[in-house]
Description:
Strand content: 15-25%
Number of domains: 3
CATH class of the largest domain: Alpha Beta
Helix content: 25-40%
Structural class: alpha/beta
Largest sheet: 7 strands, mixed
CATH architecture of the largest domain: 3-Layer(aba) Sandwich
Distance between the termini: 45 Å
Radius of gyration: 24 Å
Shape: globular
Strand order of the largest sheet: 4-6-1-8-11-2-12
Amino acid sequence: MNKRDIVFHYLIFAIAMVISAPSVAQQKAKPNILFIAVDDLKPILGCYGNTLVKTPNIDRLAKMATVFNSNYCQQAVCGPTRASIMTGKRPDNTGVWDLKTGMRDVHPDILSLPQHLISQGYSTQGIGKVYDTRCVDKQMDAPSWSVPYYNYFKTEERYYPQALGAPLNGQYQSPKSKELAAKFKKEAQDKGLNEKEIEDYVSKSVKPAVECVDVPDNAYNDGANALRAIEILEKLKSETQPFFFAVGFSKPHLPFVAPKKNWDLYQREDMPVAAFQEQPKNSVDVAFHNSGELRAYTDIPPLLSFTDQKEFGLTLPIDKQKELIHGYYAAISFMDAQVGKVLDKLDALGLTKNTIIVLWGDHGWHLGDHNLWCKHTNFEQATRTPLLISAPGIKATISNAPSEFVDVFPTICDLAGVKIPDVVDGKSLKPLMDKTAQSVKEFSISQYPRSSTKSETERQGYASSKVMGYSLRDKRYRYTIWLGNDFRSTQAFDDKLVVGIELYDYNKDPNETVNVINDAAYQSVAKDLKAKMLDYLKSQVK
């Protein structure tokens, strides 16, 4: 090829790119997207009917958004559920069921929402916890961001108060914790531990579940990241491209640390302990856990050793329960204040009117119900999640129709007027928002992996004790089926793999006190829901 041919070839290529690329005018016409992720936030918000919690900023967003009352996560733990919402794919299709599997190690070519938006003319950037660090690369999934990702948990020193600096272990600001850290650091040094071992020793030794100190918001990471997010929005204002800006807040995730002013919003005696703190009658043991995440904190009873998994949950004195619930509420209000700062800046910059705003909590959280704490189950308190979506030109409403996190990707595309990729597993929720449809699906599906008890393994004769529970939630019922032998929905179903089945009727039993799967009055319901579950599983087989 001669020089003239080469020039001609690149000229044709350049013309083709110009023709196919969105014009500046087209780009400006597209709405911006503010994508707010919140860690461990269950739907105890004012806009979800909770009259005790103080969440004025999220409630303000709700007044111009669709509040999805019946939204469910794909798996009640950070890494898998975040991989699902970011790709529109279910855990069995992302290959992420834990907190150690890299999403792109399993599927290098998987398409994320921000990655797709880049191809549609968007700039994309993020700050805070959006993906879980353990399930992506060190750049927080490099293909997702047109601008390199900002800091994850810790932001730059200049965003923290000069007198305090960054929080200890990324979490604590109390003088007591800092004094203890100095003590344990010296202990570790005297033992001859290396730098990494010293860091681990201190972080495990100084780990209270709660902290209440009189400090400014930016003493903690969420407050510092809110300041950084405001600066980023100011820069985005002048860009010619529409933006996708993801802002992740880590509270109310453990530990429950928040400035004293947020604790002072509540009285300890008003904290609502769970009404039902037992396993349901006729329950399936594999559905439960021992609240190990909370037990890792130094002011919580340590994990008990047991061999047959007959003991579940974590029994705490009422005073301790109220302290933890108080901390959870305080952390929610602290997070809400940071959300408010970001929304205020969006307003001040004149960007709100042309911005899609999405706020979501990655899964629910047990606060003592079923004697459980944290997430990690297929029960209602772990799988039901807040989801609010505001879009230009669409009036505020409340949707009680089933929705799930895999629906967020196609919904944002639909609202933004960009192509919805064929590879996503979810459906657009826009028809629920503009009221052109009453529902887009009959039910939501959550799942959770577990190891079955030794007795169940021996009884069923499994080659493996690993179990996956699939949970179908429609408007009234939850039907959960636990399948052994490393079953995944991409395989053919076999009745011989069933470890246990649960059925709960939320009209009559909102606290899940009785598993009615063998109740004669529910046999037709059980048969119908099993058929729907099997149809779902069959549809997933590759």
